[in-house]
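In this supplementary section we document a worked example of the pipeline. Step one takes a protein sequence of length 241 as its only input; no multiple sequence alignment statistics are reported here. Step two produces a three-dimensional model, which step three serialises into structure tokens for compact storage. The input and output of this example are shown verbatim.
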Amino acid sequence: MGKAAAGRAARLIAEALTERGEAVVVLATGTSQFETLAALTSSSGVSWGRVVLFHLDEYIGIGADHPASFRKYLRERFVSRVGTLKEINFIEGDCEDPRAECARIGELITRRTVDVALVGIGVNGHLAFNDPPADFESESPYLVVELDEKCRRQQLGEGWFERFEEVPQRAISMSIRQIMKSRGVVASVPEARKADAVKCALEGPVTPLCPASILQEHHLCSLFLDTESAALLSGTHHAER
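The serialised model returned by step three reads:
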């Protein structure tokens, strides 16, 4: 699954490099991205020195060296493996003013066209840290969001924190509309615990109550599942929508 998702992402990056000489990527984190990022960083032929990186989301109040920091995750699992990138744009979740940070990184991304966004789907159907009911209307590229209990327990269960009380209640997240502006979306969603969310996203209505359902409306979204995460699907689905 991860190898297939990475192959799709690498092709989108290569197409952008051919067309414009630059590619802009957005990367998610979490256990769902382990295989995909490992395969992507091993891809041959990608000119990483011409790639601009943006960060999908980050906890508020977590330092860049905290074990759960998504900046730390991306430095270790992506940046250190691909070498020099053209530009790296991380969300500073431990900033003094989260809304000002949203404005800062939002201004940076509005200057670019995102060629591919690598995302996952949460156990509650969230897309990035847009927990249900998600804001489908905001035009702001990044938002300060509240994390619901199911989302926070997912983070605890994945081993990023030792106690539930340590999981932050707020985060900075790329907005739904900004994600949907990406030319291509590659979603990697493994494991049985995601099966309900996958069924909701693919077979239910498009609704803020299942934020990932909005991907049904993206013109070039590739969804990669394993046997366990696809177990509850009733129909035949194509990876690219």
